[in-house]
UniProtKB/TrEMBL annotation:
Signal peptide: none annotated. It is found in: Nucleus. GO terms for molecular function: DNA-binding transcription factor activity; transcription cis-regulatory region binding. InterPro entries: Fun_TF. This is CIC11C00000000898. GO terms for biological process: positive regulation of transcription by RNA polymerase II. Keywords: Nucleus.
Length: 525
């Protein structure tokens, strides 16, 4: 057997892997000529007669059956110590999950072995394993993109530690077996790394079309059968990732297209509740969809895609692992915010009419529901399972502060949008002082990217110039530190609001400003 030698570096990649930021395990792997990965049984069978069967890992016949028609050959002389976690076979194939350490520069087993979230293959029963290109392997440049995605993108885009980051765990698990999902992660890493290295001002236009990886994955999806239930999870994870990419760069249109595509796809398969049939990964997708739907500017005009009751039903299953990577502990409040937004839409339908004997009950109904929502906000508490997981894995005090912050800003938003109290009202200004204290304590934490909506509402509520300047300083600080540009759009919306209500005596709806700009803005990040 003639083993494949070291892969050639792609054009534009430094010839020294160490200078590209790869870790020792990655460099060792690419310097080892005794490893080859085959992803096609026909190609593999040509080589089988030349090797003892003991050196051939047949993943298709393993108990886990993660990959269909995928085999891996590892040299008998290759030292696997340090590359594979305990419990793997002599071929480097783990009992549960696949170890990509030598390929992607970090130990994926940390995600697969979590007691809180055991992502065993049995939890992905409906995900297919389409054949990958022959001898598919990651180049050094692709490894650099994946490494950047893991260390600098997803770990900051979410607000929980990686070991309980359900969105990242599911994506990595799926990327092992599905090329489209892998291209999603490589594309996100490529886009954000290129933007980080660029000295020019960042563009706000759609960027997924600029990445060769996202173009490839869209080409793959175009050839798949959307009506096949076993493909649903893969389509939705790809759409969710592309949506997150666009939001992270401050896009104001294309991200919404991916959310709408997810909505249309769900409807063809039976609606949002169909996700309950897809075990854990279905819940991850359900939480992601609900969160970004509720925090979309257009939801304040049209209402949420699905009733918030449906979101609660699927995302809040008793006894199941519930922590969400994007929301952390604030999910109960996000769902209340969804009810506030849908009531805003309902109230607009009667706002133009004067109260009379025929419609007074409609106006009264809105006021009654608004009071009920205020009580729900005041009485909301962190989910017990979320508290347990966060207290064991993160700084729970920061999450408490974030929860209190969202309680206050949702109350402010309700008073602003439903009760139409202008910012100059004393109760608004007193609450704003407390909001500013919470913002200050969270701005240097891992929860900073959850501050877009609070900063937006705080800015709308700010009357004094000193308060407005402080909001802008916080926004500029987060944008510079986190390198996610969505907050730059929040900044522009606030400046426009302040032009309209310089003295804070008017209620200006932020979503009307985005509509004026021709934007669809998501305040989820």
């Amino acid at each position: 057997m003639k083993w494949l030698q070291n892969p050639e570096l792609p054009q534009g990649c430094n010839s020294d892997p160490a200078s590209e930021g790869f870790n020792n395990a990655t460099i060792e792997f690419f310097n080892d000529p005794n490893v080859e990965i085959y992803n096609n049984t026909e190609d593999l069978n040509v080589q089988m007669e030349e090797f003892d069967n003991a050196t051939i890992g047949d993943y298709n016949n393993s108990a886990n059956q993660v990959c269909n028609n995928t085999k891996y050959i590892i040299s008998p002389g290759m030292n696997l110590s340090g590359l594979n976690p305990p419990g793997t076979g002599i071929n480097g194939l783990p009992v549960s999950g696949m170890n990509l350490s030598p390929l992607i520069g970090f130990d994926v087993s940390q995600f697969m072995e979590s007691e809180a979230l055991p992502l065993s293959p049995e939890q992905f029963p409906l995900v297919p394993s389409p054949s990958l290109p022959i001898s598919h392997r990651l180049s050094p440049l692709e490894i650099a993109y994946f490494d950047y995605f893991h260390n600098n993108v997803c770990s900051r885009f979410s607000i929980v530690p990686n070991k309980i980051n359900t969105f990242l765990q599911a994506l990595v698990q799926l990327s092992v077996t599905d090329l489209a999902v892998l291209y999603c992660l490589l594309g996100w890493g490529q886009i954000m790394k290129d933007r980080h290295l660029s000295r020019t001002p960042h563009s706000s236009n759609s960027c997924t079309s600029e990445s060769e990886f996202t173009r490839k994955l869209l080409s793959i999806l175009a050839k798949r059968d959307k009506t096949n239930p076993s493909e649903l999870v893969l389509f939705l994870f790809c759409y969710a990732t592309l949506m997150c990419i666009e939001i992270s760069v401050g896009d104001t249109d294309e991200w919404s297209w991916y959310l709408t595509r997810s909505y249309n796809l769900l409807n063809t398969m039976g609606g949002y509740k169909v996700l309950s049939k897809y075990s854990h990964e279905g819940k991850v997708l359900a939480q992601n969809f609900a969160y970004f739907d509720i925090l979309a500017s257009q939801s304040n005009v049209n209402g949420t895609y699905y009733p918030v009751e449906d979101y609660n039903e699927i995302c809040c299953v008793d006894g199941s692992y519930s922590i969400d990577s994007m929301q952390g502990c604030i999910r109960p409040l996000i769902f209340i915010l969804g009810d506030v937004i849908n009531l805003i839409v309902q109230s607009k339908n009667i706002a133009s009419s004067e109260v009379n004997d025929e419609n007074w009950h409609l106006h009264n109904d809105v006021l009654v529901k608004a009071k009920e929502l205020e009580d729900r906000i005041d009485n909301a508490c962190i989910d017990a399972s979320d508290f347990k997981v966060l207290s064991e894995n993160d700084v729970i005090e920061n999450h408490y502060t974030l929860f209190a912050l969202y309680q206050m800003v949702i109350q402010l938003y309700l008073k602003h949008s439903l009760r139409r109290l202008p910012p100059v009202v004393p109760e608004i200004q007193l609450t704003l002082r407390k909001v500013n204290e919470c913002l200050l304590s969270l701005i240097d934490t891992s929860l900073a990217l959850s501050l877009s909506f609070p900063l937006l509402i705080a800015g709308i509520s700010a009357v004094r110039q000193s308060d407005r300047d402080e909001i802008l300083r916080k926004i500029n600080y987060i944008v510079e530190k986190q390198e996610f540009d969505n907050l730059t759009k929040v900044r522009r919306v606030l400046k426009e609001v302040w032009k309209i209500k310089a003295e804070g005596s008017l209620c200006v709806d932020w979503y009307k400003i985005t509509k004026k700009f021709g934007w669809r803005l998501n305040a989820g990040r």
